[in-house]
Amino acid sequence: MAIQRLLPTLSTPTLADHQEEQDAVLVEEVTKVFMKSRPWLPWQKGKDARTVRAVDRVSLRVKRREIIGILGSNGSGKSTLIRILSTLLIPDSGRVTIFGYDVVRDEAIVRRLINRVSVEASFFKKLSPMENLIYAARLYNLPGRLARERIVSILERLGIGAARIRQPLEDMSRGMQQKVAIARAFLTAPVLLLLDEPTTGLDPRSKLDVQTFVRELREVHDATILLTTHDLEEAEALCDRVAIIDQGRIVALGSVDELKQEVMRQLGLSVPASMHQVFMHYTASHRITEEDILRYGSWEKAFEALEAMREEEE
Amino acid sequence: MFTALVHRGRATYAFFERNWNLTRRYWAWEIVWLLYNIVNALSVTFIGAAAEQITGAKVKFDTNSLLLVLVIGTSVWSYLSVTFDGVTDIINMERWEGTIEYTFMAPISRFTHMVGSCLYAVAHGLLFTLIQLLVIAAFFHIDLSHANYLTALFLLLLGSISFIGFGIGAAILPLLYTEKGMQMSFIVKAVLLLVSGVYYPISVLPGWMQPLARISPATYVLEGLREAIMQGRPLWSPEIWSCTWPLILTGLISVPASVYAFSLAERYAKRTGKLKRNG
């Protein structure tokens, strides 16, 4: 079975045949609220105890081998959702399963199945890419010799030559560091790869390299990929489906074509909307509904009217 | 079962190797701390060498004993500091480098994480203290003809278990208090040494401090080392046993209690999102 082949040296959780047909990720009504400040002293209670609903009753189903994109503005809840899937945050309510394993109850098993690339390349900056990646490989139970071979091969494919492999990471550009972070995730061949804005800061060529690698990971290694990005072109190029998240809620979900058609219909356009229009439509400060369009005559007029109302309220 | 053991072994080695690589890459800081500790130890030990002059004693002073008390004190201070810092670096270093989320997401148990980091902390602490002792020995003519080195090493290693327990407990602070936790753990270390009679018998401490001294493992390590180095007591002597059993007890209690408390703190950090922020 492909998933078991991917993790030859880990004490792999058993993914029985019937689970082949299961969803890779199942998010059910998940909510996460953060308390911004929790005063200690009694007379400060009620002061500054602001809460932020980062993820609000989100439900999402990701099929095996699917590449799903999560689009949203800054602070919309994308990274919180990724952290919940990565077992780094415990949801307040709802349930998340990865290949049938609960991220809270079966945390140890889930951690064997996943890897994550975050927007900031988290490394020991004084150490070289080789030292950082060998450390990661050993944590994921890869023997040293095999890991070294893979590290050289993956880094070379990502354009990091042998001469750079043993230099401290702090001497590398942000883009190069991000490539090493991507190499680290690929090194462990996860069955679910969580990419949190992985190509932010990369040049166009490096972005293409990463995108090719992501596709390859799915095609060759059978991986499921969840990608958050601000890059609409990237989402369009890579993702089978796209979810748009706004203020912690999923406001749209479908294939790129489906979303474009839907927005075209709602805006009364004659050609399918661009991804930019799709994104702007679903993340506008007031979601513009069909009723709004009918009421104000067109999408543009509804947008202007609702933005004016928001400014007045502020 | 065997695969799981191999995985644990590899992961333990990963932390040991990573910390060694960090020590190599931060070599300048290592030299700074080593020099700082040596200078500090020398300046304290010179107080012993000058005791007769400082006090204006008319009778002959047992300088060798005073020097030994101070050398043991500075050595334990160094060893405890380096080991304790190494253990609290389970979190401090990860916060500093911004790698905490990645390490906490890895498919390893927190216990394996701690074992790897603590083994390195003990090895690092022993090496650091040995270098310091060699330098001090070159400055002072100390009579070590009665010393029982086996007992001394045994007590230091036995005490390390409790130091690790206290260190894991202190590592909870930077886990929960992102910005001030590191400073808090320094305070814990300093207070631990103060109450343990690092350069003096604990009988000179104020009454309210003495119960704290009795629960500190450093007290028993210091007392035992003085007995072993100055009196040459063997492992089976009643004087050493009176230091050994409290160390066994504090080790048996502090390590599991700290690991359990750490697991609760980790869960709390995951509920409140405290793993996210870096130092």
UniProtKB/TrEMBL annotation, chain A:
Alphabetized PROSITE patterns for the sequence: ABC_TRANSPORTER_2
The record ties this protein, via PANTHER family, to: ABC TRANSPORTER ATP-BINDING PROTEIN, ABC TRANSPORTER ATP-BINDING PROTEIN NATA
ABC transporter domain sequence ranges: 25-272
Keywords, ordered alphabetically:
ATP-binding, Nucleotide-binding, Transport
User: Record's family?
Assistant: Belongs to the ABC transporter superfamily.
Transmembrane segments annotated in the record for this chain: none
Question: Per its record, how is this protein called by name?
Answer: ABC transporter
A GO molecular function term, named singly, is: ATP binding
- Per the UniProt record, the source organism is Thermogemmatispora tikiterensis
